[in-house]
Specification:
alpha/beta, 25% strand, 207 residues
């Protein structure tokens, strides 16, 4: 299976030169460490930053430079700052080519649940709903099953939805799946994982 860093490295292969990309909280934030050589992308954060650099090394953190997940980051010579209204204008206006997001559940038709578990205290949806509705492509990066071994790639989501039919590709610790008409299509399996193992861990229909 892939670990978190290998999943992030695989997700980085989705990047295309010249794209503006939003990275969600969790594993997606690691994608910035694996941008392929020769590919130049501009990372956007919905709290008002365009052109995020890599994570700082220990001791060089600046508490005033954070991403939407409140992690300290670095700036680049071309970094631009603005208020959240302009940031969401970029997202809602279709200026962001792709969002790489974490998830709690994804359904076979591309439905996404990634913001709330009923009964647990949450601060709000954040920018997730705007991102899945406004960007050109949505890639989800998550563990294939929960800690009990139950599939998170489902026929239907059981948690409150962030968006309906919004996910294009799912990258998990077991492999890569595309959302297509009628279900999911296996693109590749993770190192050491067979197609049978991937199918067995997936509740959703694989065609």
């Amino acid at each position: 299976m892939w670990d978190r860093n290998q999943m992030a490295e695989r997700a980085a292969q989705e990047l295309q030169d010249g794209w503006y990309v939003n990275l969600g909280i969790g594993i997606p934030t690691l994608v910035s460490n694996y941008i392929p050589e020769g590919i130049e992308v501009t990372l956007q954060s919905e709290n008002g930053m365009l052109g995020m650099g890599p994570f700082p090394i220990s001791g060089d953190e600046d508490a005033d430079l954070i991403n939407a997940g409140k992690q300290t980051i670095t700036e680049l010579p071309q970094t631009a700052y603005f208020d959240s209204a302009q940031s969401f204008g970029m997202i809602r206006g279709g200026k962001i080519a792709m969002a790489i997001l974490g998830a709690m559940e994804v359904a076979e038709n591309g439905d996404l649940a990634n913001w709330m578990i009923p009964g647990k205290l949450v601060k709000g949806m954040g920018g997730a709903m705007d991102l899945v509705a406004g960007v050109g492509r949505v890639v989800v990066v998550m563990d294939h099953t929960n800690k009990h071994g139950v599939s998170k790639v489902l026929k239907e989501c059981t948690l409150p939805l962030t968006g309906k039919s919004v996910v294009d590709r799912i990258i998990t610790n077991l492999g890569v799946l595309d959302v297509v008409d009628g279900g999911l299509k296996i693109v590749e399996t993770a190192d050491g994982v067979t197609e049978g193992e991937l199918r067995a861990a997936t509740e959703a229909k694989i065609i």
